[in-house]
């Protein structure tokens, strides 16, 4: 018998697009919630331009396309919300209100609804209407500058943003907030409204830098640097005396234990010299040997894996971290959620929806509309 999914029975109306909202909804789907993705007519979610990225964010969902600008489309959306436990949306603040689908418009008719709005800067305030994508949140939050200074103090240009950290982090916080609100509903009988921002989610990455910014002469924090091997780099994190003792034993440098430059509290101040001493050893060895020897001595370390390396990584294979999917170009892998249960199954679905693939199913099976009504909606351009 297949393991039960922990959120089986929950229904989600997912109005979100691109990354942050969809990854939150996909995590809910992976854990058993029935997610209906409401997309605009035509191409739908803009991420569909890359079917594999779309699949990563939307596996397991059903897709219905609705014209939310029409009164009939808004009525259909209301019916979907009435039938749901959770609403997720990441339109710019005010858009859902124009459709009559914001929390204020539905909370009285749906008092148990958990409604999650994801935005760049918040639903209210002087920056609420600013457009935001992950690189904007990285810049606005202090994360990019903190990351840059932790790596190279004299770099005059902030680093380019190529990884959508803000989206993924905000989606994860939204997932947790929704679970919290659902638990709260068990106690109060009422749902709640969640206002979550990419800005504040990304700020959660830099607590140490926030605290140091309030000190007139802050000490340097962080600044871990990789060491060069003969064929690449290895990252080490020497954060305790146990780590330091293991490092000195691994590279056969007991003299470093007595070097005042590398005493506890001083290593970060002398990081360049510290790295140079380690590289006397590491530069003569390849990354595989460095990683093996350092791990044998209990030194926290890792080689730098390229994304392509992950699919053959033994630890990830052991954890079944990926799921195979297929599109018109062939098979590919997407990652499962990064937590596993002993008794529940939360692996992702091997399917993602085509645009409007489940429109008829949703209208017939979920909203119980008859064939004549569905045909009229399609003829009027309300659904696709």
Secondary-structure arrangement, i.e. CATH architecture of the largest domain: 3-Layer(aba) Sandwich
Number of helical segments with 4 or more residues: 16
* Fraction in beta strands: 5-15%
- The helix content, as a percent range, equals 25-40%
User: What string gives the helices and strands in order?
Assistant: EHEHEHEHHEHHHEHHEEHHHEHEEHH
Overall CATH class of the largest domain: Alpha Beta
Mean pLDDT: 90
CATH topology of the largest domain: Rossmann fold
Please give the radius of gyration in angstroms. 25 Å
The best one-word shape is: elongated
* Sheet of most strands: 6 strands, parallel
Structural class: alpha/beta
Task: Provide an overview of this structure.
With 384 residues, this protein is α/β, with parallel strands linked by helices. It folds into two domains: 11-205 and 338-379, Rossmann fold (3-Layer(aba) Sandwich), CATH 3.40.50; 226-308, formyl-coa transferase, domain 3 (2-Layer Sandwich), CATH 3.30.1540.10. 38% of the residues lie in helices and 14% in strands. It has 16 helices and eleven strands. It has helices spanning 20-30, 51-58, 71-82, 95-98, 103-106, 134-141, 143-151, 165-188, 198-203, 207-212, 241-250, 271-282, 287-296, 314-318, 359-366, 371-379; strands spanning 11-14, 34-39, 62-65, 86-89, 114-119, 192-197, 226-229, 232-236, 301-303, 322-327, 330-335. The strands form three sheets. It has a six-stranded parallel sheet with strand order 3-2-1-4-5-6, with helices on both faces. Helix 1 crosses helix 8. The model has no long low-confidence stretch (mean pLDDT 90).
């Amino acid at each position: 018998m297949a393991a039960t999914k922990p959120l089986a029975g929950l229904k989600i109306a997912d109005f979100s697009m691109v990354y942050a909202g969809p990854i939150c909804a996909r995590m809910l789907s992976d854990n058993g919630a029935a997610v209906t993705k409401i997309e605009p007519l035509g191409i739908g979610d803009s991420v569909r331009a890359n079917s594999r990225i779309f699949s990563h964010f939307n596996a397991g969902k059903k897709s219905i396309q609705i014209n939310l600008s029409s009164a009939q489309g808004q009525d259909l959306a209301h019916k979907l919300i009435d039938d749901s436990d959770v609403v997720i949306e990441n339109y710019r603040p005010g858009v859902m209100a124009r459709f009559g689908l914001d929390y204020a418009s539905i909370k009285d008719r749906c008092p148990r609804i958990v409604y999650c709005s994801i935005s760049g800067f918040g639903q209210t305030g002087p920056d609420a209407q600013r457009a935001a994508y992950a690189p904007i949140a990285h810049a606005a939050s202090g994360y990019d500058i903190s990351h840059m200074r932790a790596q190279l103090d004299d770099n005059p240009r902030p680093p380019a943003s190529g990884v959508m950290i803000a989206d993924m982090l905000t989606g994860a916080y939204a997932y947790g907030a929704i679970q919290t609100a659902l638990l709260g509903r068990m106690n109060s009988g009422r749902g709640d409204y969640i206002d979550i921002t990419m800005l504040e989610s990304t700020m959660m990455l830099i607590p140490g830098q926030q605290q140091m910014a309030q000190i007139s002469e802050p000490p340097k924090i962080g600044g871990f640097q990789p060491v060069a091997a003969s064929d690449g780099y290895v990252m080490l994190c020497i954060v305790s005396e146990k780590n330091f003792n293991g490092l000195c034993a691994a590279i056969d440098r007991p003299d470093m234990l007595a070097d005042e430059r590398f005493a506890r509290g001083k290593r970060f101040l002398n990081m360049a010299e510290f790295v140079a001493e380690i590289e006397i050893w590491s530069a003569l060895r390849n990354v595989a040997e460095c990683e093996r020897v350092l791990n044998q001595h209990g030194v926290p370390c890792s080689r730098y894996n390229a994304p392509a390396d992950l699919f053959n990584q033994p630890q990830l294979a052991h954890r079944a971290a990926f799921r195979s999917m297929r599109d018109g170009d062939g098979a590919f892998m997407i990652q499962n959620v990064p937590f596993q249960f002993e008794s529940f199954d939360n692996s992702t679905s091997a399917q993602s929806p085509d645009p409007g693939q489940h429109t008829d199913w949703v209208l017939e099976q979920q909203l119980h509309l008859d064939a004549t009504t569905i045909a009229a909606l399609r003829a009027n351009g309300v659904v696709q």
